[in-house]
Structure formats: structure tokens, C-alpha cells
């Protein structure tokens, strides 16, 4: 997996028409394109370039797509600026130099490390987010429904074997892999540590399987996150994602999950 197919499809994504086509239509076209090439990756693997910038920078430590974290939900930013002329330039400026006062008293720090192109891509992406968009579960994908403490949880993979409280072999494998390779930095049972973020929180903030896989494959060497490409198969990383997501939604407890 040297030439990341995600990157290829993300580039393709950027040349698709941006206006007049909904997320689902664009996703569908990317899927079509991916299928044409015979790639076996899910449609979800296509990440808009701006989202890639956001994932590669620190945006998701303060923002989520659908809800307020430290900063406003990206969907709220998109709604607020939807009909404002020059919104793109205003927001590029805000992200580049930092901003305070529009949403509250907490300041957003400046991002001097991002290029003009990256700033424009990330802001275009934020502005393109529409409410009700649920990129984590694409249309037509089989879903699994669980209830945890009275709350409904919908996932695009099963956590348990049908009709039992035993986790699937994939989730169990994810538990084993996580607690062999990732726990040193990301905490035992995915609880986070002082060395690396709590990946349960990343999932709750909207990180999809494709996104986690991409980051895990590429690593962020400058920040101490190793690259795992060549070490893990995509199936291994899917297992890790499913385990972490199961932990995030309180479906999988600490320690050995029932197998
Ligand atoms: C340390 C926390 C933090 C980080 C990191 C952060 N933001 Fe923010 N962001 C905020 C806060 C707080 C606000 C609200 C600022 C205000 O009230 O004007 C905000 C506001 C925004 C806005 C709206 C600005 C406006 O004028 O209304 C955009 C767009 C935005 N952030 C994008 C990003 C992007 C893109 C990144 C990553 C490159 C990022 N943020 C990283 C905290 C953060
Ligand atoms: C040697 C320490 C170390 C190990 C081992 C490690 N990571 Fe990381 N990881 C980090 C650090 C540090 C970061 C934060 C990087 C940053 O600030 O951008 C990180 C970030 C991440 C992120 C991005 C989280 C986010 O919200 O942006 C993912 C996904 C991730 N790691 C997955 C994994 C997986 C999966 C494994 C096991 C296969 C793993 N990591 C093992 C150190 C590690």
C-alpha cells in the first residue's frame, strides 16, 4: 500500500463540480469511479482535500462536524456564513490569524503553518458541510442498531455476533491489536494517555474508518505518531477501528471483550 488510493480518490474528488450536486451524488460518482478502477476500498475512503487538511492539522482537537467542542460545530459555521458574500476570504483570514468574538470568548489560535492553498481547501470544505450530512454512514450501507443507556447507536458494522453478547471476531482482533501496538501511546483499552489522544474521542468527533486508517497508515512522524503502512493490512486497521468505535459508544468495556 505505497500509493495511497485515498489520496488518489481525494484528488479526483476535488475536480468534481462543487455546486448543484449533493453530497450523496458526489459520493456516488466517486464510488462509481472507484469501482471502475476495480479498487475494493469503500466509498467512504474518498476524503475531500479540505477535510484532509483539517485531519492533518489540529482542527479536530477543538471542532467537530456536528456539535460544539471548544469551537463551533463546522455545520454551524457553514450555516452562519452560507449567504455571506466573501465568506471564504473572511474565514481564511480567521483560521490563518486566529479569531475571537463571533462565537464566544474563547479564541481560536492562528495557523501560520498552513499554506494559502491549504487554508482555502479547509475553509471550502467547512463551508460545503450541510446539516443532516452523515458521512460516517453512507447511503445504501447496511447499518446495525444498538441501545446503550437508553441512547440509540447506529454503526455500519456489527459489534456483536447476531443474537449474542459476544463480540465479532473482527472486534476481538481489534482489541488484541490495539492492546499490543497502540496502547503504549493511546492508553490501555483506548482510554488515551499523556502521549497520544483518546481515539474514542476522535471517533465521537466524527473520525471515520477510512480517516483513521489513513492516519494510521501515513503516521504523523513529526508529532510522534508512527506510520503503520506495510505493517498492518487494511483488515487489521478495520478491526482496530471497530474496536475503538465499540469502546467509544460504550458497547465494548475495558479488558477482554466476551468472545
Ligand atoms: C484551540 C482550539 C481551536 C483549534 C485548534 C481550531 N479552532 Fe477553529 N475555532 C475555535 C474557536 C474557539 C472558534 C470561535 C472563535 C470566535 O468566536 O470568533 C473557532 C472558530 C472557527 C471558525 C469560524 C470563524 C469565524 O470567524 O466565525 C472556523 C471556520 C474555524 N474555527 C476553523 C478551524 C480550522 C479549519 C481549524 C484547523 C486548521 C481550527 N478551526 C482549529 C477553536 C479552535
Ligand atoms: C509511539 C506512540 C504511538 C503509537 C504506538 C501509536 N500512536 Fe497514534 N498517535 C500518536 C500521537 C503522538 C498522535 C497525535 C499526533 C498529532 O498530534 O497529530 C497520534 C494520533 C493518532 C491518530 C489521530 C487521532 C486524531 O484524532 O487526530 C490516529 C487515528 C492514531 N494515532 C491511530 C493509531 C493506531 C491505530 C495505533 C496502533 C496501530 C497508533 N496510533 C499507535 C502516537 C502513537
Lay out the secondary structure.
Layout: H1 5-14, H2 23-36, H3 49-56, H4 74-81, H5 87-97, H6 116-128, E1 144-148, E2 151-155, H7 169-186, H8 199-204, H9 209-218, H10 234-248
Antiparallel strand pairs: 1-2
Bound molecules: heme C (2 copies).
Name some characteristics of this structure.
259 residues, mainly alpha, Cytochrome Bc1 Complex, Chain D, domain 2, two-stranded antiparallel ribbon, 44% helix, globular, binds heme C
Descriptive notes:
Strand 1 and strand 2 form a beta hairpin. The chain has 259 residues and is mainly alpha-helical. It has a two-stranded antiparallel ribbon. Helix 9 packs across helix 10. The protein has 2 domains: 5-128, Cytochrome Bc1 Complex, Chain D, domain 2; 144-248, Orthogonal Bundle (Cytochrome Bc1 Complex, Chain D, domain 2). The two termini are 31 Å apart. The longest helix has 18 residues, at 169-186. It is globular, with a radius of gyration of 19 Å. The protein has 10 helices and 2 strands, in the order ααααααββαααα. Helix content is 44%, strand content 4%. The structure holds heme C (2 copies). One heme C (HEC) binds next to helix 5 and helix 6.
Structural class: mainly alpha
- Overall CATH architecture of the largest domain: Orthogonal Bundle
Instruction: Give the beta-strand count.
Output: 2
- Cα Rg: 19 Å
Ions and ligands: heme C
CA-CA gap between termini: 31 Å
* Percent strand: under 5%
What low-confidence regions span 5 or more consecutive residues with pLDDT below 50? 1-44, 133-138
CATH superfamily of the largest domain: Cytochrome c-like domain
Kindly state the mean pLDDT as a whole number? Answer: 81
Give helix and strand order, one letter per element, not per position: HHHHHHEEHHHH
Please state the overall shape, judged from the principal axes of the Cα atoms.
globular
Instruction: Give the spatial strand order of the biggest sheet.
Output: 1-2
- CATH class of the largest domain, please? Mainly Alpha
Distinct helical segment count: 10
The number of domains is 2
Largest sheet descriptor: 2 strands, antiparallel
Relative helix content:
40-55%
CATH topology of the largest domain: Cytochrome Bc1 Complex, Chain D, domain 2
